[in-house]
Design brief:
Length: 172
């Protein structure tokens, strides 16, 4: 049996419309074959949340978004095959998916992988300095600053810093 191609961008548009009604944003949408079959995974966060304090996403919000998203997908007939829909928080090591994320999280530790070598390597870890044009500035451990072209970033995420949890516990 041949499966139809799925337009993940179209599904992302549907997800953004639904999450906006719940005062939250889509961080990442993935659609891939896993052991249990096709899985459509949507990571959400409350608008403007700080991952150090949590994404503002709880079980009730995930359930509400999942229900509304499932209904919207059915109405628009956006998925050709059966699938499992998972809606969740992006977690403490939140993926960085948009250029604006690199500006928003300036000062935070991040790990990036590029599709092609940049400055002689494909894996980069350091403190985000923000965005300069279409490049992400990253302060590396050796004191150098890497300018990584955004289109070359294959995947990236924030790095858990133990001190974040200590300061969070101290705020209670």
């Amino acid at each position: 049996m041949v499966s139809k191609m799925v337009n993940v961008e179209h599904f992302g548009e549907i997800a953004r419309r639904v999450t906006a009604r719940h005062a939250c944003d889509v961080v990442l949408v993935t659609y891939r074959r896993e052991q249990q079959g096709w899985v459509l995974r949507v990571l959400i966060e409350k608008a403007g949340s700080d991952p150090r304090r949590g994404s503002g996403v709880d079980h009730a919000l995930c359930a509400a978004v999942s229900r509304d998203l499932g209904d919207a997908v059915d109405v628009e007939d956006a998925m050709p095959d059966s699938f499992v829909l998972e809606v969740s928080s992006p977690g403490i090591e939140r993926p960085l998916t948009r250029l604006a994320d690199y500006e928003r999280f300036a000062g935070r530790e991040a790990r990036l992988e590029t599709s092609a070598p940049v400055a002689g390597r494909k894996r980069h870890c350091g403190r985000l300095l923000g965005v300069r044009g279409e490049e992400v500035a990253l302060a590396l451990a050796d004191g150098e600053v890497a300018a990584i072209p955004f289109p070359k970033i294959a995947k990236a995420h924030l790095v858990y810093e133990k001190s974040e949890m200590v300061s969070k516990a101290g705020e209670k």
